Amino acid sequence: MAEKEKQRYIEESVPGMQITLAHVIARPVPELYEKLDMENTGEAIGLMVLTPTDSAIIAGDIAGKMANVNLVYVDRFGGALYFVGDVSAVYSSVKAVEQQLEMILGVHTCPITQT
């Protein structure tokens, strides 16, 4: 009887260059600040998730330069970015990050959502 050939599978995870979440929370509930371990300033919160994950560093730089927002959290390992400011500043920063990363790095963007 012939032996069965063993098959091997090699899996790799290669993240694309994309923004998978671009969201503005215009009027966050107070509990959200507490859960995120943030000072309750009553300001809007901008959330972005990016790959490659290190692009969150570049996005944070762009966001901080484009409008009057304060960076709260930059996760270069998970690709998350949070920042706060007034609604128009937060939205402008999210839009600027999308435009700049698309132009500079060829990152695929997603629609900006808002609640």
The figure for the number of domains is 1
SSE sequence, one letter per element: EHEHEEHE
CATH homolog superfamily:
BMC (bacterial microcompartment) domain
Main β-sheet, spatial strand arrangement? 3-4-2-1-5
Count of extended strands:
5
| Uncertain segments | none
Q: In CATH's first tier, which class applies?
A: Alpha Beta
What is the rounded Rg? 18 Å
Structure description:
Helix 2 (55-66) packs across helix 3 (87-105). The chain has 3 helices and 5 strands, in the order βαβαββαβ. The protein has helices spanning 30-35, 55-66, 87-105, and strands at 18-25, 44-51, 70-75, 80-85, 113-114. By secondary structure, it is α+β, with helices and mostly antiparallel strands. It starts with 17 loop residues before the first strand and ends with a strand. The model has no long low-confidence stretch (mean pLDDT 89). It has a single domain (18-114), classed as Alpha-Beta Plaits (2-Layer Sandwich). The chain has a 5-stranded mixed beta sheet, covered by helices on one side.
Write the layout of secondary structure elements.
Blueprint (H helix, E strand, L loop, with lengths): L17 E8 L4 H6 L8 E8 L3 H12 L3 E6 L4 E6 L1 H19 L7 E2 L1
Parallel strand pairs: 1-5
Antiparallel strand pairs: 1-2, 2-4, 3-4
Helix pairs in contact: 2-3
Put the structure in a nutshell.
The protein has 115 residues and is an alpha+beta fold. The chain is built from 3 helices and 5 strands.
List its salient traits:
single chain; 115 residues; alpha+beta; Alpha-Beta Plaits; five-stranded mixed sheet; 3 helices; 5 strands; 26% strand
